[in-house]
Amino acid sequence: MKAAKFDYARPATAAEAFSLLKDDTVIVKPMGGSQSLGPMLNLRLARPQKVVDVSGIEEMRTVSKEGNRVRVGAAVTHAEIEDGVFEPLVGHMMQYVAERIAYRAVRNRGTVGGSLAHADPAADWVLATAALGAEVEIASAEGKRRSSMPEFMLGAYTVDLQPNELITSVVVPAKAAGSRWGYYKFCRKTGEFAEASCAAWFDPASKTARIVLGALDGAPQLLPELSARVAEQGPAAATREAIEAAVAVVTPEKSTVQRNLCVTAVERCLKQALGE
Ligand SMILES: Cc1cc2nc3c(=O)[nH]c(=O)nc-3n(C[C@H](O)[C@H](O)[C@H](O)COP(=O)(O)OP(=O)(O)OC[C@H]3O[C@@H](n4cnc5c(N)ncnc54)[C@H](O)[C@@H]3O)c2cc1C
Q1: How far apart are CA 30 and CA 17, in angstroms?
Q2: What is the Å distance from ligand 1's center to 251 Cα?
């Protein structure tokens, strides 16, 4: 099947994109790398009358370090992060995650902003940015605002975003001496979405720990008690029993097999984060 007819615009500036998205006489949809929107257009699950391609907006294609934070433009591709094009993300958890998204053809075009806006529960960026405690920067013709992860993702394919708004960037912690992270996902084969996934971020300086479980029915879920105990006691608190108890709270609908996959994903993620 092919997409129904739509108008296409590729603005060079965010201001131009905002004014195109403001038009409420037609159904307008932003486009990043089109890796999720493209199939939806072809299947006619999405039928916008106008598509606004944001991939040419330079101000959304930059990465900058600002103090202890890094601002990642929404139109930056997974492949650019994987390739280390932006120094602040070299050796960062985001580079490790980018390398593991789908396969190269998808990574060449798929963008951070598109992935966050699409909010597939099994997607990598929604999980990694939740563990990083990222803030999503959103803008429209009316102004700018921020939405913190994981609050930005309200549920499966549902986010805190109005039709006239764009994600312009995502702000994550910069690499810091002493900070530790882990990322583990089970995929049936390379390039597929995760069946179970976990991301963890520890910053001893601010005594922050976030262990987040992904690939659930809805948004990724923070494991708050386990995070607090591991932050306090280190690897000693990450016992199989403690992980099982934490996972059970957020997976009431899962079968034993699926829950075991989640438990093992957390265990392996924490081993990566906390191992010597
Ligand atoms: C075969 C295949 C395998 C995949 N496997 C994985 C995987 O393992 N892990 C994973 O995480 N992802 C995977 N993906 C998804 C991929 O990462 C996509 O890149 C991502 O979901 C969407 O990004 P995009 O830039 O292509 O967005 P698009 O497809 O262009 O857009 C997706 C949605 O976001 C909206 N949007 C786009 N940009 C913005 C913006 N800046 N502001 C507001 N709204 C915006 C669009 O309107 C649309 O609703 C896979 C995709 C394919 C095709």
Answers
A1: 9
A2: 26
Q: Which domains occur in the chain, in start order? A: 7-53 (3.30.43.10), 58-173 (3.30.465.10), 180-274 (3.30.390.50)
Encode 111-143: b = buried (16+ Cβ within 10 Å), e = exposed: bbbbbbbbbbbbbbbbbbbbbbbbbbbbbbeee
Q: Which residue out of 31, 50, 62, 144 has the highest number of ligand 1 atoms within 8 Å of its CB and is therefore the one to mutate?
A: 31
pLDDT tens digits for range 187-219? 988 888 899 999 999 988 878 899 999 999 999
Task: Find out whether 72 and 169 touch, Cβ atoms under 8 Å.
Answer: yes
Torsion of the alpha carbons at 103, 104, 108 and 112, rounded to the nearest 10: 40
pLDDT at 203: 87
Q: What is the CA radius of gyration of the chain?
A: 19
Which ligand 1 atom minimizes the distance to the CA of 74? Answer: 41
The number of helix segments (H) and strand segments (E) in the chain equals 10, 14
